[in-house]
From TrEMBL:
This is Transposase. It comes from the Bacteria.
Amino acid sequence: LNNLRANGHPSGGPWRQFQCTACDGYFPEHHGTIFHGKQAAVELIVHVLACLAEGLGIRATARVFEVDPNTVLHWLVEAAEQLTAFSAYFLCHVHVNQLQLDELYVVLRGVINGEISAENAIKRLERSRPWVWTVSDPESKLLLVADIGPRTLAMAQRVVHQVAQRLAPHCIPLCLSDGFKGYLPAILGHFGGWVHPARRQEKGPWPKPRWRPLPGLLYAQVIKEYRRRRLVGVTHRVVFGTLEAVNTVLAPLGCQINTAFVERLNLDIRQRVAAVGRRVNTLCQGEDGLQHQLALFHTYYNFILPHASLRQPLPQSVPTNGTGSAKTWRPCTPAMAAGLTDHVWTLKEVLLFRVPPWPQPQTV
């Protein structure tokens, strides 16, 4: 709006001061961010959050940086709100050819302590809260949705609804999932429409309209059979569309019907989210704490962490400042591969980014 102008650094501080010519008010550069009002150094806050994003627990991070654990938790809660808004702002109008959906559970404390068996824990988890739902694009490795909820039909509807909101209009990707029954009505409800059947007789009432999948909808399932905790068989089931159409979409990746990419992503979540790891003592006490760590991982994985398989060759080698070999590859994040941004973000840039309160086209 051209109503701001810089007014120097008050008292020689690190942050600039701006003046609003419309209201004749003054405010610092970091106003409205998690750094405003903090006595701690900016680099310390960034390094603490980076350690949390790399899978270090809250108490371990507090011991490394000699900070109180409650302070680390407070910074994480404030950062999660900013990171959630940041991801929601950029993850919109996404064009993808296929999606893989999966869910993973969080180990109960009772299983670790030996109070209940793993089989009974899984039965309890079927209707409990700690399930992490993930939806990713296997081509760009973009994580579209990372949510927490019970393994129920209502939660499947919620996850698919978030996917439909972030996809571009008229984008109907190939959906691949496991054999969970809740995905079928959820996908059909969001990627379907009313169809008026043809009249079979000249006389009589018209047939009632029916809800049918859209013509371009493709959905397949990977059904795994287990016996004594061992995988004994895998079957592929095409629910919507034909096998030839599904293989045509999967041909660029040179693979068949599978959920291997989202399962590999689940491994990253277990390694980088301390509350989801196996056989650890960093489990969260409630769903809110797990949601905060998952929001940090969601933004860190999509915008900050380069993916090795997405790197792009440079037109010519770039010499380095040291004695090492020349740089021949350009790092690329899943958000860059999906066309949502043009550079690798730093955690400090993300935390300082001001998310507009109104919808705007992304120009960054």
